[in-house]
Amino acid sequence: MESGGSVSERRDELELRFEKALVEVLAHEHDLEVRHREDHIDRRRQGVATLNFTFHYGKDGENAKVVITVDGAEKFSNVLPVNFRNRKGIERSAENCEALVHFLRDHLAECREKELADASQSQLKYSRRDDDLA
Questions:
Q1: What does the alpha-carbon distance between residue 47 and residue 35 come to, in Å, rounded to a whole number?
Q2: Gyration radius of the chain over CA positions
Q3: How many Å apart are CA 100 and CA 75, to the nearest integer?
């Protein structure tokens, strides 16, 4: 691992790098609508999966397992190994997310189907933007 900063600051930086890399892989390579929990952009948009990350480190501090959960899918979690030794290791770890991709495709499809069913039954609630325009 590179030196500089406290161990806690360094871990936070590496974790954020992995989280951003994973969101980028899911969004750009797999065309999935995802965002990180801390991303406030498009917060009101429906049909976007919000990802949550919990890291568990090994003894060496350079490897971890990350538990990924999705808001609205309480029974789902995905564990990915993460190699924090260098940038390439982080990127490869983010690319190794096939099980997560399969789940997100199904989850987002179910969300869209529910939203369409609610719309056809006029059960959609107005968002703040809709209220502002009325």
A1: 11
A2: 18
A3: 13
